[in-house]
Specification:
With 418 residues, the protein is α/β, with parallel strands linked by helices. It has four domains: 160 residues, Molybdenum Cofactor Biosythetic Enzyme, Chain A (3-Layer(aba) Sandwich), CATH 3.40.980.10; 47 residues, Molybdopterin biosynthesis moea protein, domain 2 (Alpha-Beta Complex); 77 residues, Molybdopterin biosynthesis moeA protein, domain 3; 73 residues, Beta Barrel (Beta-clip). Helix content is 18%, strand content 29%. The protein contains seven helices and 26 strands. The strands form seven sheets. Strands 6-3-5-4-8-7 form a six-stranded mixed β-sheet, with no helix packed on it. The longest helix is centred in the C-terminal third of the chain and has 19 residues. The radius of gyration is 30 Å and the shape is elongated. It binds ligand LQZAQKY5, molybdate ion and magnesium ion (MG).
């Protein structure tokens, strides 16, 4: 008797997976190695930035009060008494109508409170004149204007990107606390599979899911461990899943999750004693996506169909792995875009259509990327987004505004909103 599975909503499936995520242990790593992780500690300003009043321009430091009354008809001259570049501190104290030649980034000298840009002066020997008054602190980059000592700048759980690295460097956080990257095992099942290096024989196809999933992980900065591809034999697959589970924080399998005679994953979960969270989702492709847990580890049973496999990874594996690494914004970014062409199919299940998303400067547009079936491989290669059409809807026409999930961006959002 074939098992009749009860589909659950995509949102519920996502929530269930996220509820079962266990964060990986916190480690301290060299800050330069931290790109792609998420902060396991907040970044708090250790000192003011800038930590001293400084010049934002190449010019002259003056006392603003000396510039009162300057105009085209009444140029005020200044005597230059010192010359400093960034990294140097002048030891001179300005007296009336004296100035210090100062370069961008150098600390404002004692007594000075305004900077005149080089272009605003007429120079003559060791002096220059100006034709306008300067207000107190005009053209001065103030101590603490960027960050105040003790200020919380970046919250724990934020993704670390090159800008974050700049901030870590600014405060000398040369070691940073992050959640370790999870180890992920990948197993592809299917007697029909041969390696991409091999010639095809009757009934055989090349394994594309394995390399694809491995690279979906690479895109997240994770190096997965591929256990290769295997024929649909229960004992063999069971042993392999056990081994991969013992050696990794989570395991991704592809294929063998449906109700076919050689779909052994359901039996494998049973034999392992794993708890199946769900095995049918009201979505297409990827309706057969199954997620199970065992000893706090997640087992992702992705569909064998390439589009379904790809979609299952992006919707469930990606956010789970991001959350394992402590990322507070693990979900794909959600936008709205106008359809460029009609999509005239009823949608009993929510549909995730591999799509091309583009922005013309004013409006966002999306169009299906090509052959749109769960077993399609070509449209995955062409798309950069999913068009999401809710279950229970019918036709969508050119110009309709639809939901879009953007793929391949490193920073996500904090909530699943579809
Ligand atoms: N009676 C039913 N049949 C099917 C149902 C159903 O509900 N009732 N669901 C269909 C849906 S939806 C999908 S999706 C597929 C899922 O199948 P499996 O996850 O069990 O995957 P397989 O049977 O192993 O393979 C399906 C398909 O994908 C190809 N494949 C498998 N692995 C790879 C790989 N590594 N690289 C490239 N392509 C791969 C495989 O050759 C098959 O063509 O089940 C439907 N059936
Ligand atoms: O899981 Mo199947 O891809 O829904 O089409
Ligand atoms: Mg099958």
């Amino acid at each position: 008797m074939v098992e009749i599975r009860k589909p659950i909503k995509v949102k519920d499936a996502v929530n269930q997976v996220m509820e079962h995520v266990k964060r990986t242990p916190i480690i301290e790593i060299d800050y330069l190695q931290s790109y792609g992780y998420s902060l396991a500690e907040p970044i708090v300003a250790k000192h003011d930035v800038p930590s001293f009043h400084r010049s934002p321009y190449d010019g002259f430091a003056i006392r603003s009060q000396d510039s009162i009354g300057a105009s085209g008809d009444n140029r005020i001259p200044f005597q230059v008494i010192d010359h400093i570049g960034a990294g140097h501190v002048s030891t001179k104290q300005l007296q009336p109508y004296e100035a210090i030649r100062i370069m961008t980034g150098a600390p404002i000298p004692e007594g000075a409170d305004a900077i005149v840009m080089l272009e605003q002066t007429v120079e003559q020997g060791n002096s220059f004149s100006i034709r306008k008054p300067f207000a107190p602190y005009e053209n001065v980059s103030l101590k603490g204007e960027d960050a105040k000592e003790g200020e919380l700048l970046i919250q724990e759980g934020s993704f670390i990107h090159p800008g974050t690295i700049a901030l870590l460097a600014t405060f000398g956080y040369t070691k940073v606390k992050v959640h370790q990257k999870p180890s992920v095992g990948i197993i592809c099942t299917g007697t029909e599979l041969v390696s991409p290096h091999e010639e095809l024989a009757p009934g055989k196809i090349r394994n594309s899911n394995g390399p694809m999933v491995e690279t979906q992980l690479t895109r997240m900065g994770i190096t997965g461990t591929s256990y290769g591809f295997f024929t649909d034999e229960l004992d063999n697959c069971l042993a392999l899943v056990k081994k991969a589970l013992a050696e990794n924080d989570c395991v991704i399998t592809t294929g063998g999750v449906s109700v076919g005679d050689f779909d052994y994953l359901p039996e494998i979960y049973q034999r392992l004693g794993a708890k199946v969270l769900f095995n049918k989702i009201a979505m297409r492709p990827g309706s057969v996506t199954t997620v199970a847990t065992l000893d706090g580890k997640l087992l992702f049973g992705l569909s064998g169909n390439p589009s379904a496999c790809y979609t299952g990874f992006e919707l469930f594996v990606r956010p789970a792995i991001q959350r394992m690494m402590g990322n507070k914004r693990p979900f794909l970014p959600h936008f709205k875009a106008r359809l460029i062409e009609d999509i005239l199919k009823p949608n009993p299940f929510t549909r995730f259509i591999r799509s091309v998303f583009h922005f013309d400067g004013m409006n966002a547009y999306a169009t299906p990327a090509g052959f749109n079936k769960s077993n399609a491989v070509t449209s995955i290669a062409k798309g950069n987004a999913f068009i999401v059409l809710p279950g229970g809807t019918r036709n969508f026409q050119q110009g309709d505004v639809v939901d879009i999930l953007l793929l391949g961006v490193e920073e996500g959002v904090d909530e699943w909103t579809i």
